[in-house]
Amino acid sequence: MFDPDKLTYLDKSVDRRVCFITGGNSGLGFFTVLHLYLHGYIVYIAGRSKQRVDSAIRQLKDEALVRRAKETPEVLQFRHLGELKFIELDLSKLRSVEHAVKQFKTREKHLNLLILNAGIMAVPYSVTKDGFEIQLQINYVSHFLIADRLIGMMDTSDDVRDPRIIYLSSVGHRFADFHFNLSWEFNHMPNIVFTWFRYGMAKTAGIHMVKSLAKRHPKVLCVAVHPGFVMNTNLFSHFTRLPFFGFLFWVLFQLFGSFFGVTNEEGSYSTLRCLEEDLSTEKDNGKYFATFGVEQKPSSVATNENYADESWAWTVSELSRRGYETDRTS
Ligand SMILES: NC(=O)c1ccc[n+]([C@@H]2O[C@H](COP(=O)([O-])OP(=O)(O)OC[C@H]3O[C@@H](n4cnc5c(N)ncnc54)[C@H](OP(=O)(O)O)[C@@H]3O)[C@@H](O)[C@H]2O)c1
User: Fold this and answer.
1) Cβ-defined contacts of 299-302 (< 8 Å, 24+)
2) Can you give the CATH number for the domain in which 296 is found?
3) Is 135 in the pocket of ligand 1 (CB under 6 A)?
4) How many whole angstroms from 156 Cα to the centroid of ligand 1?
5) What are the transmembrane regions (predicted)?
6) 234 lines ligand 1 (CB under 6 A)
């Protein structure tokens, strides 16, 4: 099993590493941030609610104190806490993405770690103000725009140590193997079936993005992960909050989780494993890691280079139509 203690503990006065993470206030993102903070990273938690992120920051600081209280002074002298900061970001609005990126750039000169973690799953069909199906925009398109805007802070200078991008995909990306076409919104009934195709498509496009970024930016290690089945995060709340059926779904998810699931903290391990020093751009760029960070081969559609190129071209063109110019190199 992966052990977060194996990761390097940083002293920010000599090695200041900056992380930008989306959705770090809840679920497995919360524990990802906790371990980064315990390991000395400067973490920008990009979220849509300042109140929720501030409350998470308070809980993270308390939890860090509890964990450090279990260590001896000898151990603690080599373990320095990082910093936790809030950046406002609503992934359902491209304008908010641009604004968050601008804010970040006024505060930092370089970026070591970009974790594209936020997501929604299996919600009813709807279209954002930018005109994308909502799961596609939040899980993929907005993250594509963030990566495009921030990667320049990661790979231009040799001062940026060990730059990495980690995208939270899902085993659910495999739903897109039935049919992959980003222009097809799967707006059909019943939602409980077709919503999974929309989720799968977004998470497959995310894996394509990672592969394409790895090709275009060989100095930045870009990987995708599936965190495992983490049944106690807010990801399932659309189902568990349904009137009457919500409780049944909750019971079902708990049962499923008790056989196949991992805890919220263990859900962060696949992401954290991708920070280990044995991974390198030469041998691991574009790879996919599943529960506890075990390397896996993603679906055939996700692996297919032609599909990856098509996803890139489609996204660049759709963003351009909306006034957002991104990397057009093929
Ligand atoms: N849980 C699992 O079993 C599982 C399995 C496979 C993959 N994943 C992936 O893992 C990632 C984390 O999921 P989780 O289980 O930890 O779920 P979660 O607890 O619901 O966390 C999702 C995070 O995304 C944020 N978010 C949602 N919509 C947003 C928006 N419009 N703008 C900015 N942030 C937004 C949420 O912020 P708010 O608090 O403001 O809503 C929250 O911080 C997701 O990408 C998910 O698809 C999870």
Assistant:
1) 299/173, 299/174, 299/176, 299/177, 299/204, 300/177, 301/176, 301/177, 301/180, 301/204, 302/169, 302/173, 302/176, 302/204, 302/207, 302/208
2) 3.40.50.720
3) no
4) 30
5) 20-44, 244-263
6) yes
Question: In the prediction, which pLDDT does 190 show?
Answer: 86
How is residue 43 written in tokens? 């973490």
Which of 51, 235, 241 maximizes ligand 1 atoms within 8 Å of its Cβ, making it the mutation to test the pocket? 235
Mutate-to-test residue for ligand 1 from 31, 48, 99, 137, highest number of ligand atoms within 8 A of CB = 48
Q: Which domain range does residue 240 map to?
A: 233-261
Q: How many CA atoms lie within 13 A of 319 on its CB side?
A: 27
Q: 270-280 pLDDT, tens per residue?
A: 999 999 999 99
Whether 163 lines ligand 1, by a CB cut-off of 6 Å, is no
Do residues 149 and 168 both lie within one domain?
yes
Into how many domains does the chain fold? Answer: 2
Ligand 1 contacts CB of residue 7 (under 6 A): no
pLDDT-derived band at 327, boundaries 50, 70, 90: confident
Q: Give the model confidence (pLDDT) of 40-75 as tens digits.
A: 999 999 999 999 999 999 999 999 999 999 999 999
